[in-house]
Write a structure and sequence with these properties.
This protein has helices at about 1-15, 15-35, 55-60, 60-65, 85-100, 140-155, 185-200, 215-225, 225-245, 250-275, 285-310, 315-340, 350-375, 390-400, 405-430, 450-460, 480-495, 505-515, 530-540, 565-585, 595-630, 635-655, 665-690, 695-725, 730-765, and strands spanning about 70-75, 120-125, 125-130, 165-175, 205-215, 465-470, 500-505, 555-560, 590-595. Strands 7-8-6-9 form a four-stranded antiparallel beta sheet. The protein has a three-stranded antiparallel beta sheet with strand order 4-1-5, with helices on both faces. The protein has about 775 residues and is α+β, with helices and mostly antiparallel strands.
Length: about 775
């Protein structure tokens, strides 16, 4: 039945070859125009799991306490002393410039020059204070002396002023939209403005500007992603050379490359049709689409080439190749597509867009490389040479590899594979969730952004590594001693947690204010027990401090962490949950989490929760498609088992190379499985035909190698060489993906030609 349908489809296509090509030309022109309208999109909300409970808390209180999308600008004086007129001029200019950049929440811009940056001191008559930069400030030695005195009274050293007085901080929260246009904030354009309007304008030999925050990181990642274009061109060149060495024909080299590039154009055009853009992760997908397209194109030209060598004309050879490859190629590409679609189960926008982008790209390969390619080939009068290796050399290689289907060799191979799997499983079980390095994990440690991050963490006591625990209570809750006592107890326990550098909350500040009302006596650094005294202390703390909301029903506790490594976040989150379970009651609840590290904690948990379901979905989809294709449980298991072993070894490699399972690396396993299954499907589809005819397993494998082996090995090598160029990327996450994909492409290919035949020898004992 299936064979009859394939034959009918082949007859329909090749009788109307001109119309088919015309239709493809029109579609390519339309989608090519749409692809030219594609824009980069790196919105903050795409990088967070919005449905996670932490993010629900984050979004609920974002308006009152700001979000995790903030910018920190450290202005450094290279002399090591900020108290000079040149530095203060630069600091004021940077504050003003940042204040007026569209997308900045102006009310939340903080620096020495902010009116809300005030000092308070205890004097004979009570309290005295004012702005750290007084209204009558003059930028001279006398004025700077007054400012220095006010800074020490304000207690902002380590926060707005570097601990060694070598730099000062300007910070701001960002809006989700551009106030001038109302459109979502263009993060990448905003990052460029920071670079040109702050660093470009004000950095000199004396003044250095250090900028960190999500928007700046996204801009630097987008800048590094431009190198993908160069890697793409290198991949095309390398692939072209290898295809020519394989096909020994210029025409058979050009046609699969052109059809694969058409698939890329279609994929990019379809993204704009459905309203998507390219982010720094999905910008890697066009390369994968091209590589997958070439791999299936090589199978097609290999089949055509063999038939031309046997004496068929181009049209007959193309039609015959189309009939033989449509089902196995279609099943392989459907497996890829469904495998990528399983990534939609992960509730993170950037991964879901990657899944849709990759699925679209692989789906169109069915049209461009399984349909368009043979139709186009049929128009050319092909002249091809013999085997690239020479017939004798090729036969020796296939006969050597065919031994893997011999029972004696098979048992040894399976024993070694089991041992390798057991070894890999031990390492894989130690794989960490989240980022395992300081700074921005998407960038290399020596990048400008990470160097800025390290400067700020070295010179200030606070960084962007902040987790905010939201304490939800009732209106006027902060005027009750029992409420603030619980908050104080929570803060004290968290301050003594490994990984927490410092803390801040309404309770700790209220203690200091209360001492101020009692001549600064340290003995009075306690929370007043009566409401009147507590109201007096709380009244001195404005809502702009970020320590309470308007009706005093929500009071965040800020935890400043030493870094955002996976182990640090895990320890802190576990401790918060344990303490909250004890302190929560019907009046107040301690809820995770806001702040940049709160977002990371939610992301790590989302990745951890998605890992197992994603693997089950990927393997489940591949299993069902192979079962439908081969109609044999044994054949399906023979394809799946090598993939599973390689996936486990890939996770072990991640542990060995200190690569954590994060947003950027989670899709790699699905990509590796989806693409790696192609090798086994092509080999076993040929073997299955031979086995149904009664042929012995070893002979069936030998003939499968003679027909498909060279294309499978070539494909694995070409894919691996292509992604190996990512080792030199300016982006750390792209380099990590390149290492893992290179490993999976190569080892999946080896699994298909070594482990798969050994399994077939065991599964079909009567055919030995």
């Amino acid at each position: 039945m299936l064979e009859k349908m394939v034959n009918g489809f082949e007859s329909f296509l090749f009788r109307r070859r001109g119309y088919v090509i015309a239709l493809f030309v029109l579609a390519t022109l339309f989608l090519g125009i749409r692809a030219g309208q594609l824009k980069m999109d790196a919105a903050f909300v795409k990088n967070i799991p919005l449905a996670h409970s932490y993010m629900q808390t984050y979004l609920k209180h974002q308006k009152d306490f700001g979000g995790a999308n903030s910018i920190m600008v450290a202005v450094e004086d290279t002399s090591g002393n900020i108290f000079n007129p040149v530095f203060f001029d630069a600091l004021k200019n940077i504050h003003d410039q940042l204040f007026f950049i569209p997308g900045v929440e102006r009310a939340n811009v903080k620096s020495l020059f902010s009116p809300s940056t005030r000092f308070t001191e205890v004097v004979e008559d009570g309290f005295a204070g004012g702005p750290v930069i007084p209204a009558d400030y003059v930028n001279d030695a006398q004025g700077l002396a007054v400012v220095r005195d006010n800074i020490e009274k304000a207690g902002i050293v380590g926060r707005l002023i570097a601990e060694d007085y070598s730099a000062a901080m300007v910070s701001a929260q960002l809006m989700d939209f551009d106030p001038q246009t109302g459109a979502p904030l263009d993060t990448i354009a905003f990052a460029k403005q920071l670079e040109t309007e702050l660093r470009g304008k004000f950095e000199t030999d004396q003044i250095k500007v250090h900028i960190i925050g999500f928007a700046k990181m996204a801009g630097d990642v987008a800048e590094g992603a431009k190198g993908v274009v160069l890697f793409f061109l290198i991949a095309i060149l390398v692939t072209a050379v290898m295809v020519y060495l394989f096909s020994r024909s210029i025409m058979l080299t050009l046609l699969p490359l052109v059809c694969s590039l058409i698939a890329v154009v279609w994929q990019l055009g379809l993204l704009t049709v459905i309203g998507f853009g390219l982010d720094p992760m999905s910008i890697l997908v066009p390369f994968l689409v091209f590589a997958i397209g070439v791999s299936h194109g090589v199978q097609m030209i290999n089949a055509v080439r063999r038939r031309v060598i046997d004496g068929q004309n181009s049209k007959a050879a193309a039609a015959s190749a189309f009939r033989s490859l449509l089902v196995p190629g279609g099943i392989a590409l459907l497996s890829d597509t469904v495998g990528f679609m399983t990534l939609l189960a992960i509730d993170i926008g950037i991964i879901r867009e990657l899944a849709i982008s990759a699925s679209l790209g692989v789906a169109v390969i069915i049209l461009t490389n399984l349909i368009l390619l043979p139709v186009v080939i049929s128009f050319f009068d092909l002249k091809v040479k013999g085997e690239a290796l020479g017939k004798g050399s090729a036969e020796k290689i296939w006969q050597f590899l065919a031994r893997f289907a011999n029972p004696k060799f098979a048992l040894v191979i399976l024993a070694l594979s089991a041992a390798l799997y057991g070894f890999g499983l031990q390492y894989a079980n130690n794989m960490k969730i989240g980022d395992l390095q300081g700074g921005a994990p998407a960038l290399h440690q020596d990048s400008r952004y990470n160097q800025d991050t390290f400067f700020i963490t070295d010179h200030f006591s606070i960084t962007t590594d902040v987790m905010t625990v939201i304490v939800e209570g009732f209106p006027e809750a902060c005027t009750y001693n029992e409420v603030l006592t619980r908050i104080g107890d929570f803060e004290w326990q968290m301050a003594n947690t490994p990984g927490v550098e410092s803390t801040a909350s309404l309770a700790s500040i209220a203690r200091k204010v209360n001492a101020g009302f009692n001549e600064g006596n340290p003995k009075w650094q306690v929370l007043p027990r009566n409401t009147a005294s507590l109201v007096q202390a709380i009244g001195q703390i404005p809502t702009s401090s970020g320590l309470l909301n308007g009706d005093c029903s929500v009071m965040p506790v800020y935890l400043f962490l030493k870094d955002h490594k996976a182990e640090t976040i895990e320890v802190v989150v576990d401790k918060v949950k344990k303490i909250a379970a004890v302190l929560d009651n019907d009046k107040i609840q301690f809820k995770l989490a806001s702040g940049p590290v709160g977002v990371m904690a939610a992301t790590n948990e989302a990745v951890s929760e998605a890992q197992l379901p994603m693997m089950l979905y990927v393997y489940g989809a591949v299993f069902l498609l192979c079962l439908v294709s081969f109609r044999s449980l044994r054949a399906t298991i023979a394809v799946i088992l090598p993939l599973y072993v390689v996936s486990t070894l890939a996770q072990a490699l991640m542990t060995k190379l200190n690569i954590g399972l994060a947003v950027s690396t989670l899709p790699v396993i699905a990509l590796g499985v989806g693409i790696g299954v192609d090798y086994g499907i092509y080999i076993l589809s040929t073997m299955a035909q031979k086995l149904r005819q009664g042929m012995a397993v070893q002979q069936a494998y030998l003939e499968a190698l003679e027909e498909r082996g060279s294309a499978v090995i070539f494909t694995g090598l070409t894919l691996a060489i292509g992604v190996s160029t990512w080792f030199f990327s300016a982006l750390k996450f792209q380099m990590d993906m390149g290492i893992l994909l290179t490993f999976m492409f190569l080892v999946n290919m080896l699994g298909a030609i070594i482990i798969l035949p050994a399994l077939t020898s065991v599964f079909w004992p009567k055919r030995r």
